[in-house]
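[step 3/7] fold_predict: job queued, chain A
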Amino acid sequence: MATAFEPSSRPMVLLVDDNVEQRDLYALSLEHQATVVTASRGDEALALASRVRPHAAIVDFHMPGMDGLEVCRRLRAISEMRVVLLTADDDPDLPRLAQDVGAATVLTKPCTPERLWLAIGDTRQTFPASLEPEPSAPRRLGELEARIQHLQRMATVGQLVGGVAHDVNNLLTAILGYAGAAIEQISTDSPIHSDLREICRLAESAGTLTRPLLSFGRTAESVRVVDPHGSRTVLIVEHDEGVRRLAATVLRRQGFRIIEAASANEALTLSDGEPIDLMITGAYVPGARGRALAEQLRSTHHDLKVVYISDPDAVSASAALDRASTRWLEKPFTPAALLTVARDLLGGHDGHEA
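[step 4/7] structure written:
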């Protein structure tokens, strides 16, 4: 049951958002009726919640290191506080995923202060007097709402920019991969060899241009088998067809048995009964987060190794990974980089078992 606010007490609300200006604006709109404590990261929020035990928490979905779903799950393990998730994403699966980790509701940005009040209060009970707006508050809340909506319009633009940069990174990954694979098959004396190297250099340079865009943007199909006897099996889960096929081509040439999936559900279906040694997955794939998919697969594939491939803005999460069984690979990546992390996790071997 969600924690209800006592009418006689001043409720405490934990506000978690890595966007400083937006976090401060929300805090300002809430602090007249509640005690507001803030955090910019998931680990900071968990430490704070353990000390002060807030009545409710408002958590942004996209944050570095630990996303809102994981923060919500861990907050609910501390106490049965009411947790509201904020997101600018239009993901139809998010409400279900949020419910699975104990969130009370998901609010889509832009979000007004009034909507926040209604969301963090227990709507099954009478709205407590301590949460009713003061008589002098409407004009102030209106001004804050206008400022928040401006910020959230900027966040929408940022989301579009980040989405374009993400798609460009996927294309650059495929370009780097296929050009790199072609280089290995052409003599160094050929003029084409130097042309391909220049293509790789330019693609890597273009990859550095997407990083500020991603930073701003942050505010499979079938089973294919090669050498089925004694080969290590790699499950590749990636919604972008170019990136997925590149990874499959690179690993298949080294003797790995490949299973391709474009979504979490497809990955679970295709891997059922298969001896999966390594999974390569996006940090977010249709239907689930990469980590949630890995946890589910490890319930049946206990020694599963995992490589997460993602844009640079998510690589800070690598600090929390178990280095014995997991690696993080930044897009755009080269075939050599992919092979290096795969071999590293599998004990230095290619596709054939030692």
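[step 5/7] annotate
The radius of gyration is 23 Å.
The longest strand covers residues 82-87.
exit 0
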